[in-house]
Amino acid sequence: MSTLLLIVLFTAIGGILSVMAAGVFLLLPEQQRQNVLPHGISFATGALLTGAFCGLIPHAFEEVAVADMPMLSATILIGILLFFILEKLLVWRHCHSHACEAHGEDSHDEHDHAHAHNHSHDNSRRATGMFIILGDSIHNFVDGVLIGAAFLTDPQLGIVTSLAVAAHEIPQEVGDFAILLHSGYTRKKALIYNMLASLTTVIGGVLAYFSLGDLHHILPYFLTLAASSFIYIAVADLIPSLHQKTDIKTSLQQIGFILAGVALILVMQSIAHRFEG
């Protein structure tokens, strides 16, 4: 199977199928969704960290000379800081547009402000939904580029990377669905918009194939950026949510599903390696 076909196939798995899985998840009763989602987050945490530390980073270092390793390590640090800044800007934008402005009003203006705030609330929620779609499209495009770069380095690494992407995309897509539904979108429209946004994963992968194919010297840096993305998502976004519950039963379940995510990536690495051999 050609590299381009593999990229198209696995970017579709990482994008479109994750949206479909999230859509099926939304058909579950609310209580079941609340019970299952934390397990998905734990599983994604293990898959992302294993994909980064046992897949992307080792392959990146294998592709460079010893003299370039410090720069490659610095790329991981820069990537983590960059993702922190980008997320900070997104949080600031949301705060500035909504709650922070409301809290900044003087108390004697609150009554006068209430009517205007309620009048624009629906439009604000709709804008938030569109912002989520735009942000998801960009995020999926970057995921596609990173999956494409991984396949150009090693098909085995590409498979592992696409699986790690899918593992964290499903819980994220569920969250995106929830935001879109809260913003006034119907389930059908939310599914269509998320499906369209997921197509950018395939676009990113195909563009990476044609634009990075002759630039193998920069592929290790894309791999380390992908690793820093996985590490940041797991450590900054997913793990803090797991700490919200500290009872023994929940903690053991979290550890179990994290280890399941680790095991999946390691097993898929082994299978892909044997298949390649």
Q: Could you describe the 3D structure shown?
A:
With 277 residues, the protein is an all-alpha fold. It has one domain (3-98, 123-276). It is 87% helix and 0% strand. It is built from ten helices and no strands. It has helices spanning 3-25, 30-62, 69-97, 99-103, 110-119, 121-153, 155-182, 187-212, 219-242, 248-276. The longest helix is centred in the first third of the chain and has 33 residues, at 30-62. It starts with a helix and ends with a helix. 39% of the residues are buried. The chain crosses the membrane at residues 6-28, 40-61, 67-86, 191-212, 218-239, 251-272. This is ZIP zinc transporter. Its main location: membrane.
> Spans of 5+ residues with little confidence (pLDDT < 50)?
101-105, 110-121
Q: Which descriptor suits the 3D outline?
A: globular
Number of domains: 1
Kindly provide the radius of gyration, computed on alpha-carbon positions and rounded to a whole number of angstroms: 20 Å
**How are helices and strands ordered from N to C?**
HHHHHHHHHH
Query: Mean pLDDT, nearest integer?
Result: 79
Structural class label:
mainly alpha
Give the number of helices. 10
Biggest β-sheet strands, sense, barrel = none
Q: Gap between N and C termini, in Å?
A: 14 Å
Count of strand segments: 0
Report the β-strand fraction as a percent range: under 5%
Q: What helical percentage do the residues reach? A: over 70%
InterPro entries: ZIP
Protein name: ZIP zinc transporter
Membrane topology: Multi-pass membrane protein
Organism: Methylomonas lenta
